[in-house]
Amino acid sequence: MLLAPYEILLLLAIGVLVGISMSFIGQTGQALVIPAVLLITGGNVLLAVTVNLLNDLLAAVSVSTAYVRHHQYVFHKKLPLFLVIALALSLCGVFLVTTTTIGSNLGWFLPIIFLIIGIFVLRRGFPTSESLRITVLNMAKNIAKRSGDQAELLDLEEKIRLEKLSTDAPIESEIKGVIPESSKVFYIILSCFAVGIGLNSGLTGANSGILFSLFMILVMGYPLKKGVGTALLLSIAMCVFTFTAYQVLGIAIEGHVFFNVEITLLLALGSVPSGFITSHYIQRLSAKRMGRGMAIIMILLSTITLVIFFTR
After folding, report:
1. How confident is the model at residue 168 (pLDDT cuts 50, 70, 90)?
2. This prediction's pTM
3. Measuring CA to CA, which residue among 245, 243, 247 is closest to residue 257?
4. Cα(243)–Cα(202) distance, rounded to whole angstroms?
5. Would you say 111 and 309 are in contact if contact means Cβ atoms under 8 Å apart?
């Protein structure tokens, strides 16, 4: 495939943005890479999905080096179960994409979702396990107010005060989830996240890094950087498995693999070095600045994607 000069520049620029984006919160480049590859290849959805998977894999490996070097990862005993469920559902997603036309509308739906999330995070800040606990306590406080239970109200106000103090000076090594790990609710939420991550990766060719990060931070109670670092390592396993599944089913159903050396190389020339450099810089940032940077990148990527999709 002979690419035009503007297509080469477009892929390099997208790669740079993807590397930066993944450095902040493990976010995939699917919302920008897939529409661009569809534009260049004339609408080959399966090729676009697998190109994005491979670029996400290369970018995640590059970005994760900084998190591993600074020991920003923790493998919890619940994660193998979580990953197995996600991988199984990823295979289901791959089968649906390779046998149906379900992937034909990926170009506009995903960037709109990311745009909404980006705006929310920019306005409210990135949600953390600590902020979620405060939200739950405030809900309980409102219930106590309506019931007139003054003793319970005072106890909740004290808990909220202490929680806010711990949020102002967080313990970076502490892993404390909102929901007890022995409860049924925990396993239900774990399963829901795993199913969503698996289907997202299988259907859209994403590393699902941002969903992995949300699970680590909101459900497992990981600090932001450890959550992102662990999520990146899990997303590498997801990318390898899903990319392999696409190639195997591609040979079995279509009779050929889905791969493009030129497009993948150009994306990687942008995403790998930008991800490596940015991820090392991010280690010096606070969680608040990381969240704000992630939101700005999400809004930028989504806006560019929608412009490409609706003007092509």
Report:
1. very low
2. 0.80
3. 247
4. 9
5. yes
